[in-house]
Amino acid sequence: MTFKLEEHKILMVDDDQHILELLMTCFEKEGFQKIITAVTGTEALLKTNQESPDIILLDVMLPDIDGFTLCSKIRSHTNAPILFLTAKTTDLDKLQGFSFGGDDYITKPFNPLEVVARVKAQLKRTTQFSSFHSPKEVYEYEDFIINPNTSKLIVKGERIELPTQEMKLLIYFCKHPNQILSKHKIYKDVWGEFYGGDSTVMVHIRRLREKLEADPSRPKWIKTVRGQGYIFEAPTSGDSL
Questions:
Q1: CA of 91: how far to CAs of 57, 61, 65, 129, in Å?
Q2: Strand 222-225 relative to strand 180-181, pairing
Q3: Partners of 66 in the beta sheet?
Q4: Rounded to a whole number, what is the distance in angstroms from the first to the last CA of the chain?
Q5: Coil, strand or helix: which one is 51?
Q6: Predicted model pTM
């Protein structure tokens, strides 16, 4: 599948008109043509439903609702990548953003060209992800089944919705079973060239465990290897499920 900037629709949510105009100018210069804006959470939800954006830039401090809460509401309508744009810079704020379903976290003040680059990286990897798998590539385990072609996860017979980044992370583990993978390698392979710190990987793995594991505190599938990273323990081809 060819990656074409002009075909991707971006929703920018910020109550600062100056920031919106600055970002729109930069994105248009880079070749993006489908840009939608919203200045409140209510408007953002409406446009998410109406426009089905491919990616969302989301301010945290909005006049009617905080961006973290809004992110969780948006997640019930779309799995499109969500990038927070915020003046909240602490590690706790970043962890909170990821825990609500965000895919990336950019602090203000920011370089608009960096924002464009991160959006391109997210969209490119999402495009590659959607076209990477063959029709027969379905991962079936004792507790869950995941179909990358339909982005469908079934856990003990129940359909579970996964945000795009969590889906990509789970597929990555399925493709690399029984291998110890460092946090840095996981981030580089799943998120791309921008390294966002260990907390990004940790939060997304915690969220996956909550959906896959009977007891997330004692994981059966995605295990921590102290001092080294994580391992997805799965049956080999010779094992029975």
A1: 19, 17, 21, 29
A2: unpaired
A3: 61
A4: 34
A5: helix
A6: 0.66
Q: How far apart are CA 127 and CA 131, in angstroms?
A: 7
Domain interval for residue 78: 5-131
Structure tokens, 234: 């799965």
pLDDT in tens, 12-43: 999 999 999 999 999 999 999 999 999 999 99
Name the helix (H) or strand (E) containing 173: helix 164-175
Q: From 152, 76, 70, select the one nearest 84 (Cα to Cα).
A: 70
- Does residue 97 contact residue 68 with C-beta atoms inside 8 Å? yes
Task: List, for residues 160-176, the tens digit of each pLDDT value.
Answer: 888 778 888 999 999 99
Measured CA to CA, the distance from residue 237 to residue 220 in angstroms comes to: 18
* SS3 call for 36: strand
Q: Are 43 and 148 members of one domain?
A: no
Domain count along the chain: 2
